[in-house]
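Hey, quick one: can you model this chain's 3D structure?
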Amino acid sequence: MGKEKVDKITTLQMTGIVFCFMLAAGLLTLPRVAAEAGGAPDVWMSVILAGGITFLFGWIMVKLSQRFPDSTFYEYVQRITGKAVGKTLGMLLVIYFVGLAGFEIRSVEEITSFFLLEGTPAWAISAVFMWISLYLCMGGINVIGRVCQIIIPITTSIFVLICLLGLNVFEPNYLRPVFSEGVMPVFAALKSTALTFTGSECMLIILCRMDKPEKATRALGIGIGIVTLFYTAAVILCIGAFSVEGVVTRTWPFIDLARSFEVDYLVLERFESLLLSIWIMQIFATFSIALYCASLGMTQILNASKSKILFILLPAVYVLSQIPKNLNELFSFGTMIGNAALILFALLPLPLLLISRWRRVRS
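Sure thing. Here's the predicted structure for all 363 residues.
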């Protein structure tokens, strides 16, 4: 029990975990996904709207978890619904986190082998990534929180630099006129953009590890706010640089944005390698958090050893990551995970919160 008490995280670390869990491979593809769904330059409004909706659902998750500040979702859901239903719901969450981890590891394979380490076997890229993550998860959520805390300023500074330099190729006319096709493109792109905001669900698992759980709403709000700013800036800059028609034809629009300008007076003339390096760190953090949440779930549901579960999950995640045969199947897999997140985390927490209040179940 002593170890559990030590494994606590601060409000800043919780903010970092929310930030890193939400901001992963989605940033590189969001401009294309939003432009395809909306077909108009106004889709950046969908991003802001999706951020607000995500915060609302995240707030419900926080309120649910704050009723049980000493328990994870896997533990308190059994008290709300009964053991059989609770364990089933817990396993659905485990499957979701395993699927998300598989998607992230495959994304980093595709991005790294195409842009950075051409010719390197995919398994070699994944192996290093997964074993370091395993070591991180062994240390507990406090270690993951510290890593996320380090990643935030690095990611933010590089992202802001690329956005500022991206203004060199930015053409405001590509974003005009606003609402030229009405508000329907904004709502048409809403579902696609909402899928990239999945990440607040970690509150269901990790809130009980906060040293000040009453500040969870603040941590969630700041994390989602920063991610919304990043996503909105990425969509506006990519559409402003390439137009809606140009963004739709690019697999990784934000990487193409970083490749579209050269700056002679800086030490680095090309920035895509720098961008990819920090985004590999982001995907690493997302993968580690998903693996931790999945392993914690199986540990608590099956009453098994955490280290044994981690060693069982790791090959399962790798096998799952290799199922998509190409990029199109990988993106379809990502959409499927996003849809599962909408069902699990948009529809489930509110009924559970109402049932727990009705039955007066709490810690």
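One thing worth noting: The domain at 8-358 is CATH 1.20.1740.10 (Amino acid/polyamine transporter I).
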